[in-house]
Amino acid sequence: MAIFIILAAIILVSSIGVVAFLNPIYSAMCLIASMLCLAGLFAQLDAHFLATVQIIVYAGAIMVLVMFLLMLLNLKYEKPKKMRTFYSIVTVLVGILFLCVILPPLNDFFSPFAGAGSQVVGDVKSMGELLYTKYVFPFEIASVLILAAMVGAVMLGKRTYGKEK
Amino acid sequence: MVPISLYMSLAAIMFTIGVVGVVIRRNSIVVFMCIELMLNSVNLSFIALSRTVENLDGQIAVFFVMVVAAAEAAVGLAIIISVFRNIKSVETTDAAELSA
After folding, report:
1. DSSP per-residue letters across A43-68
2. Which is nearest to A87 in space by CA: B95, B90, B26?
3. How far apart, in Å, are the Cα atoms of A108 and each of A80, A102, B27, B95?
4. How far is A107 from chain B (nearest CA, A)?
5. Minimum distance, in Å, between the CA of residue A81 and any CA atom of chain B
6. How buried is residue A163: exposed, middle or buried, by Cβ count under 10 Å (0-12/13-18/19+)?
7. How much is the mean pLDDT over chain A?
8. In Å, how far from its chain's centre is CA B85?
9. How many Å apart are CA A141 and CA B34, to the nearest integer?
10. What Cα–Cα distance (Å) separates residue A24 from each residue in A8, A78, A100?
11. What are the tens digits of pLDDT across the range A82-125?
């Protein structure tokens, strides 16, 4: 319980930091901290394989790609303008109102399941058994999806040498 | 033993912070990072529910969400680079040629 409270507090503060910092590098660092603490929460929920994949793929590949992009684009700070600040405050208030509306019924709905579930452990063997028997078709389609994304990213990133001449 | 309603509440709060970030921020890369925050919150709720139902299907769903998020990150950032090459800016308000 103490681990959950510490990790959840860091996640909440980092998530607000992603939105609040004007420097995009600070936002990216806050998101990396949030993802690492989320991996800790996954491990606490007995999802060991997914905790490791979260660190390797999300924090280690996707966020590194974002940091490379921020380094190459070399941006200035985002400037807050006056009308923008008013709409920002309104949006935050609407978000808080939404949470006040949706959190109590959510807690009431999930409170009967408080002590459930400790028989299933998401280790590599169980996940592999499920992935290669029941979900083998989405697994193969996911590989085609990654290939398509790779081809698309390379095509979008190329400079069009024919038109520039 | 942490009750599952705490995990679901944390996921709901993270999701709302992500939505507020997508609406507020003008930098496209920060908007992309708030979308990743929303995806992470959904991953947390999937895993918490998978533990409650005592089934591993929720964790397989998280696996595929991570695959799709990685593909989307590659393509989305390539699009941001292409737009930056044309208008020399990543602010969303600068890509307003179609509006009146």
Report:
1. HHTT-HHHHHHIIIIIIIIIHHHHHH
2. B26
3. 39, 10, 38, 44
4. 5
5. 11
6. exposed
7. 89
8. 24
9. 27
10. 23, 8, 29
11. 557 888 899 999 999 999 999 999 999 988 887 666 777 888 99
Are the beta carbons of B33 and A116 separated by less than 8 Å? no
pLDDT value for B99: 75
Residue count (chain A): 165
DSSP state at residue A62: I
**pLDDT (mean) for B81-97:** 85
Which CA distances in Å does A130 have to A26, A39, A94, A122? 39, 21, 41, 10
Other C-beta atoms within 10 Å of B6: how many? Answer: 17
Q: Do A18 and B30 touch (CB under 8 A)?
A: yes
For B27, the 3-state DSSP assignment is strand
> Which of B20, B27, B82 is opposite residue A91, by nearest beta carbon?
B20
Facing residue for B9 by CB, picked from A107, A114, A127: A107
pTM for the whole thing? 0.91
Record: contact A62-B1, CB cut-off 8 A: no
A117/B72 CB distance under 8 A: no
**Two tokens, residue B51:** 């533990």
Q: How many residues are recorded in chain B?
A: 100
Q: Give residue-wise pLDDT tens across range B36-83.
A: 999 999 999 999 999 988 889 999 999 999 999 999 999 999 999 998
Token pair recorded at residue B5: 């309603």
Structure token pair of residue B59: 């964790």
Neighbours of A53 (CB within 10 A): 21
User: Is there a contact between A18 and B10 if contact means CB atoms under 8 Å apart?
Assistant: no
